[in-house]
Specification:
The complex is a heterodimer of chains A (about 250) and B (about 260). Chain A is built from 13 helices and no strands. Chain A starts with a helix and ends with a helix. By secondary structure, chain A is mostly helical. Chain B has eight helices and nine strands. In chain B, α3 crosses α4. Chain B is globular, with a radius of gyration of 20 Å. Classes of the chains: A mainly alpha (about 250), B alpha/beta (about 260). Chains A and B meet through α1, α5 and α13 of A and α1 and α3 of B.
Chain lengths: ~250, ~260
């Protein structure tokens, strides 16, 4: 079966369907996160300055762009199988393509935002360092991690309709606990708290890794890189295995 | 392009093997379960008991055979078809279908309403596993069959019901099928469209495709199918030549020709 072309078509459909007929069209995909980032910047960069990182706006925005990708992708993926219920009930095709298309569209948005942000960061911070070569690897891992997570929440939500609301509720405190507008080591001296903020939250090492490379101009610490690689592999393999196991009854439950 | 549904892999293209197939459904007031139920560990007590949609059904269809599947509403016809299509898994028994399966369970099910007819042809072709080149090579034939003309560039949302159905059928009719699974979709169009679809179906059958057709239209079944399988209450109650099966079906449904009044 030619699933590659199907996937391409599903991405195209996802990309164009949501904002079709609106004046800005697909530009909304970029405008929304930009507004979100502007609001967060106003809040944490201007009103409550959490920490005194140099070039704080860039510190904040680099972390934010990673978070926005993660949160928008999983929020969009969770109800995606139900939204495409007509297809799931009436056609036979690999259902993974539905949440994967949602994540891919958010990846495209993320790369556009990163493409706007990265040159500015590199120029202002002067961090054009060979470490930057690690960025593609980190981004591939981030994509794999988000995709695995999205597969899990999408198939679980098809069976248990509480998953998407729980996820939506969890994302706000999750955001505040993620090292986006602060560096855990600088806001508390408690070792346990720093450890928890840096390692218990699986999104944190991805934020740290992207920020190390882009904003810090340095190679991330080995534990961070190892975490990122392992989290990506576990998420994708585990997510796909769970999806395969649970997808059989999808035509009945959606 | 070959794939098979289920464990059996040594079926020939166009062959259907269904053995002791059973499938039931738990009937809920609304679909899906909530987390509370799972955590408490018990299903909703209210609601009717599980519905046995298919009870120990066996069906062996040779490549090129044409089978009509008939029965009352709720007899299990659509479930059986969805099992053959690989959309619905069995609770017991096994299923194997050889070759490329083309399903028409609902015309235009996958259409994006905001996309043009042409874009939907690409999307639907891709859903059936076709590549861009394969779709493009059939594009003109599909558009011609659909009789949409310039409307093929307009969003599907602007189509009349008839145009929507014509496009849906046109796409499915131009896929190379070893097995055609069709559920009642022909009943919807006008007469000219129905005749055209039947002609196209006959073409595909003479090219060697296997057909399983679900319909309440006895005349259509008699015209298109050599064999008939009658389902009742999830069980197969008749399987044989259509000439013998039709009287049986009419007796079952109570639709025999009325006795001429004296």
């Amino acid at each position: 079966m030619n699933h590659r072309y199907l996937f391409e078509q599903m991405v195209r459909r996802e990309l164009r369907q949501k904002y079709k007929g609106s004046a800005l069209g697909i530009v909304w995909y970029v405008v929304n996160p930009l507004v979100l980032m502007g609001a967060y910047y106003l809040m944490f960069g201007v009103i409550f300055k959490a920490t005194s990182e140099p070039d704080y706006p860039l510190f904040l925005l680099v972390g934010l762009v990673v978070w926005v990708f993660f949160s928008q992708a999983v929020l969009g993926a969770a109800p995606s199988l139900l939204e495409q219920g007509a297809l799931v009930r009436k056609a036979r095709f690999p259902r993974e393509t539905i949440p994967a298309a949602v994540v891919t569209v958010q990846l495209i948005t993320f790369l556009v935002l990163l493409g706007l942000l990265a040159p500015v960061t590199l120029a202002i911070r002067g961090t054009l360092d060979p470490a930057l070569l690690l960025l593609p690897l980190v981004l591939v891992c981030l994509f794999a991690f988000v995709l695995g997570f999205a597969l899990v929440v999408s198939v679980l939500h098809a069976y248990f309709r509480d998953v998407a609301p729980i996820l939506a509720a969890a994302l706000l405190p999750w955001f505040f606990l993620s090292p986006i507008f602060f560096d855990p080591g600088r806001i508390t001296q408690q070792k346990a708290a720093v450890f928890a903020l840096e390692w218990v939250n699986p999104v944190a090492p991805f934020i740290v890794a992207v920020r190390d490379v882009l904003y810090g101009g340095a190679v991330p610490d080995a534990p961070v890189l190892a975490y990122v690689l392992v989290a990506a592999a576990l998420s994708l393999l585990g997510g796909h295995a769970l999806f395969r196991r649970m997808q059989a009854e999808l035509a009945v439950v959606v | 392009m070959k794939h098979s549904v289920g464990f059996e892999t040594n079926v020939r293209p166009g062959e259907i093997v269904l053995e002791h197939a059973s499938r039931s459904f738990v009937v809920h007031a609304d679909r899906g379960r909530t987390l509370k139920e799972m955590l408490i560990g018990r299903a909703r007590a209210d609601g009717p008991p599980p519905v046995e949609a298919l009870k120990d059904i066996s069906l062996h269809v040779e490549p090129g055979e044409t089978v009509g599947m008939v029965g009352r509403n709720g007899a299990g016809k659509s479930s059986a078809l969805r099992v053959l299509a690989g959309i619905l898994p069995l609770h017991a028994g096994r299923i194997a279908v050889g070759g490329q399966i083309v399903t028409q369970l609902e015309l235009g099910a996958g259409f994006g309403r905001d996309f043009s007819g042409r874009e939907n042809i690409y999307l639907n072709g891709a859903l059936h596993g076709l590549s861009r080149e394969q779709i493009e090579s059939r594009m003109e034939a599909i558009i011609a069959f659909s009789e949409l003309g310039d409307f093929v560039e307009a969003p599907v949302a602007t189509y009349s019901t008839g145009m929507f159905l014509r496009l849906g059928f046109a796409i499915a009719a131009h896929l190379d099928a070893d097995v055609l699974l069709i559920d009642e979709v022909l009943a919807v169009g006008d007469e000219a469209f129905q005749r055209k679809c039947e002609a196209r179906m006959a073409q595909q059958i003479s090219a060697g495709a296997t057909l399983v057709l679900v319909s309440h239209d006895a005349a259509l079944i008699e015209r298109t199918c050599e064999r008939i399988a009658v389902l009742d209450g999830g069980e197969k109650v008749f399987d044989g030549p259509v000439q013998e099966g039709m009287p049986f079906y009419h007796r079952l449904m109570g639709t025999e020709d009325p006795v001429p009044s004296p």
